Amino acid sequence: MPLLHKLKKQNRKEGRCVIIRPSRYEDYEQLVELENLIWNDENTPLVIEWETAEEYAQHVPPGSLFVAIHEGRVAGYISVKNPTMLESNRHVWELAIGVHPDLGRRGTGSRLLAHIEEKGRMMNIRKICLRVLATNERAISFYEKNGYLHQGRLVEEFLIGGKYVDDCLMYKLL
Hints:
Layout: H1 3-13, E1 18-22, H2 28-38, H3 53-59, E2 66-70, E3 73-81, E4 92-99, H4 108-122, E5 127-133, H5 137-145, E6 149-160, E7 163-173
Parallel strand pairs: 4-5
Antiparallel strand pairs: 1-2, 2-3, 3-4, 5-7, 6-7
Helix pairs in contact: 2-3
Keywords: Acyltransferase, Transferase
GO molecular function: acyltransferase activity, transferring groups other than amino-acyl groups
Organism: Pradoshia eiseniae
């Protein structure tokens, strides 16, 4: 059964209709709004304020991430990239994810992770990794609940708001 069909069926059973698909240019106004809403100096070492959909599209081309659509609105997104350009590291993806705070704890983030993990398996990806600030305890708990393990910690990696913050490295083997 194709992944999109399985997700739609699962979402209908749970009373939630969430569709995950590649991003399109028409999503970008909502993506800019979401990005500007969710990122702050408690969850990222560099807050980027996007001004326009055009500016966003220059840095994040359509189709370069997957969006979760709930009731016709962008509820979240996920993207992956190879962390290095090395051939010996091609089996690893590094992810970035964001979910609208009004839709947190409703399964949208877990669905996005499941989607990208299934894509990874289909593409012979062995490992998905991520970085998360130690101060972002809610995100760390979310990743742990979705099977991600702690891989290491970069102690006092960032100086944010006058305080040193550790960067936690997490991973999941597929």
